[in-house]
Amino acid sequence: MKGNDYFGTAEQKLLDAFTVVDRIENKAIKADVSATLSRLYSKMDQGKKALFYAKLNLSLRKDTTRAYQAFLILGDAYYRVGLYDSATFYLNKSLVSKDYGRRSDAYMRLADIAMIQGNAVLSMKLERYSSAYKDSLYQSRGNVVTDKIVEAETDAQITLHQLYYKGRLNIYLCVFIPITIIVIMIVFFLYRKNKQYRGKNDLLQKNNQQLEKVNQDLSQHYACLQEEITQRDLEIENLRKELASCRIDEEQREKIRVELDEMVLRRKALVKEAFLHSPLYAKMQAIIKDHLDKDASDKEISDQEWQELIVSMDSQWNNAISRFHVKYQLSKEELYLVCLSLTDFPFAHLAYLMHSSRRTLYRKKNALCERIGVEQNSEFKEILRKI
Predict the structure, then answer these.
(1) Please, are residues 270 and 263 in contact by the beta-carbon 8 Å criterion?
(2) Cα–Cα distances in Å, from 153 out to 30, 103, 371?
(3) CA 380 to chain centre
(4) Which of 21, 94, 34, 88 lies closest to 60 in space, CA to CA?
(5) Whole-angstrom Cα distance, residue 158 to residue 198?
(6) Residue 156 contacts residue 120 (beta carbons within 8 Å)
(7) CA-to-CA distance for 160 and 169, rounded, in angstroms?
(8) Within its chain, how far is the Cα of 309 from the centroid?
(9) H helix count then E strand count, the chain
(10) Are 179 and 215 in contact (CB under 8 A)?
(11) What is the DSSP letter of 146?
C-alpha cells in the first residue's frame, strides 16, 4: 500500500511468512500468503512469479468451485503474461461472485483485454459496468439501495451471462436465423408451386405448422432444461450448507450426503442433456456430416462456441477440467481436444471440428498423456474421474 519503494520489503516479509507457513503445513494461511504474493508480483511486473503463486493459491483452496477471489487473481496473472484466453476464462468464473468490488475489478481487467484485442466498443461497455459496480459498492456500504444500483446490477448480470457463456445469444442467432431463412425460402417456393397446384395448399399449411411446432418444442425443451439446471444448483447449494451445519447428528449427515451425491448426479445428467439439445451440438453434427458427405464444410466453431463447450464440459465434470487446465497448463488446442473427447463423437471425427488431421490429433493426445504421466491409450474421461 505504501508504493513501489516498499515492494522489496513487502516481498521479503511475505516470503518469510511463506517459509514459516510451509513448515507448519497450514494450507489456508499458505493460500492467503500465495494470493498476496501473486498480487505483489503483478504490481512488480513479474508475471511468471505472479502466475506461479496464483496457481498455488487456487490449488490450496478447499472449495475450488467457488474460489472466486482465487479465480480473479489467477485471471489477472494470466493477463500479465499475455495469455488472454486463459485470463478471460478465469475472470469470467470470478464474476459469479456477488462481491461488488471483485466484480468491478474483473470487469476492468476484461475491458483491458477487449481493448488489447481491438474491441473498443466492448471495452468501453465493460468499463461502464466496472464503474457501476464501484458506485454500487459505495452506496451499499452506506446501506443505501437506489434504483440506479438495481438497474446497474441487472444490466451487469446480463453482461455476465453473455461473457460467461461467450455469446450464447449470438449462437442462437447464428443457428436459428439461417434455419428461419431456409424455412422462409421453402415456404416461398411451395407457395409459388401451389399457384399451379392449388390442391396442395392444405398439405403446405400442415407442413409449416409441423415445422413451427418442432422448432418451438426444441426451444422450449432447451429453456426448461436450463431452468431445471438452475433449480438443481440451488438445491445442491442448500444441501451443502445443511451438511456443513453443526446442528445435525452423524446419521442425518450421512443421509444428506447420500442425497447430495444423487442430486449432483442428476444435475450432471441434465447438463449433458442440455448440451445435446443445444444449437452448438447441432452445428457440430452438421460439420461432421458435411465432411462425411463432401470432405469439406463451410461451417466452423467460433471462439464463443468453443468457450460455451468448455463451460458445458466443465459443469458436467464438476469443474475437473478447470483443475486439469491449471495443473498441466494446457494450450488452447489441448483444452479443446480434451473437451471434445468428452462428447459422444468418435475420436476420428474430432479432426473435422478442429480443422486438423487425425494423425495430428492422435499425436497431440499421446504427447499430452505422456506429459501427465499416463499410458498413451488412456481415455480423458478416466483421467478426469481420478481428478
Answers:
(1) no
(2) 34, 11, 44
(3) 19
(4) 34
(5) 49
(6) no
(7) 13
(8) 8
(9) 18, 0
(10) yes
(11) -
Residues 319, 216 contacting (CB under 8 angstroms): no
Cα–Cα distance for residue pair 139/136, rounded to 1 Å: 5
Amino acid at 263: M
Quote the cell numbers at residue 157.
448480470
CA distance 209 to 28: 60
Contacts of 113 (CB under 8 A, 6+ apart): 79, 84, 87, 88, 91
d(CA 149, CA 132) in angstroms, rounded, equals 8
pLDDT tens for the chain, 387 residues: list them. 888 889 999 999 999 888 888 888 788 898 899 889 998 998 898 989 989 998 988 888 887 777 888 888 888 999 888 898 888 888 888 887 777 778 888 888 888 888 888 888 888 888 887 777 777 666 665 544 445 555 555 565 555 555 545 545 555 566 667 788 888 888 878 777 766 666 555 655 666 566 566 556 555 655 665 566 666 666 666 666 666 666 666 777 677 777 767 777 777 777 788 888 888 888 999 999 999 998 888 999 999 999 989 988 888 888 888 888 898 899 999 999 999 988 888 988 999 999 888 899 999 989 988 888 888 778 878 887 776
Count other Cβ atoms within 10 Å, centred on residue 89. Answer: 24
The answer to whether residues 65 and 46 touch, using CB atoms and an 8 Å cutoff, is no
